[in-house]
What does this fold into?
Amino acid sequence: MKGLFLLALVLIGYGSLYPFDFRADGAPFSRLFEPSPGSRGDLLENLALFLPWGYLGMVAWRRPGRPSRFAIVVVTGAVYAAVLQWAQLYLPTRDPTLRDVVPNTLGAAAGALAGCVPFLDVRRLGGDGRIRPAPFVIIGFWLAYRLVPFVPSLDWQEWKDSLKPLREWRPFPWVGTFHDAAAWSAVGCLWAAARPRWPTVRWLPLFAMATIGLEVVIVDNWLSPATVAGAALGVAAAVLLRYRPAPAALLLAAALLLSGLFPFTAREAPRAFEWVPFAGFLDGSMLLNTQSLFEKAFLYGALVWTGREAGLRLRVAARGAALLLAAIEVVQTRFSDHTPEVTDPLLALFAALFLHLADAPRTPPNPVESPPR
It folds into this structure.
């Protein structure tokens, strides 16, 4: 866990200081106190950025009888956020402001609170082997992807507007439907393995319907035919396949390949490959980038996890997922409507690292034989 915390520290700094075009004559210090309007996506990004700091800081250095750990994690997170804003004064392409430190600190506090809950502590949760924490985390990424920006609406008209795209069945969105069906079949496998005693057959359809219902009441969200049809087909596939991980892994791989190349429109000239990690997540709409990050965290985490549960070693499953994603990215240089980059294979390797630390297969201890009388 300490390694994951250090990795989170590096990634937070990477995302805050990209593209690293420092200049010697930085902006005046007073610029940090200037009002800076922020969008909902910026607020969500700043909150989510320090969630791993708070959570991993609590879990990695947990000590009994140390209630001050929460305050230490939150205060150090606030200091780190302020230092990063100061460093942005020397980046002409960034807009530094101490206003961002507030949501950063709130994100660190929320993550630290999650680390205090025994049910969410991956070390306590998986300690007896009866509950496996990583499947719940991966399912959480899927739920977060569906419910971004997590703000409910009380406007009845907005609820009706979110249902209007359901009328658009022609042409049938078969790529999106297959994508969601593969995802929901993986969700069924993840739940069945996370807590085998819980009734997956009854729970999975209820969870799918509840997720779709929540999507209706979230602002700036809407339902599509692919969402509904994909959920129905995915739940049916999970039940028919008896939640076996091997078919779910094959469905996920096929869905990634299909959605990664669709609409199969060739380019006249190959597009340059982006070698800067996470470059695509640091430009454009932060709200859409956050949603995309949640989606990819689920898909790649589920792909590596189902591959391992199907009988592959974790390193083999990770390499296979990374090679598949790298091949898709390379082919994308010849297809339109895609940005080929190195980020996706790296995310698959990060998912494997998380599984190695938080959800390693556990073997029960050998029973102690009683000495013969």
Summary: The first helix runs from residue 2 to 17. The CA atoms of residues 149 and 287 lie 7 Å apart. Confidence is low (pLDDT under 50) at residues 361-373. DSSP finds 15 helices and no strands in the chain.
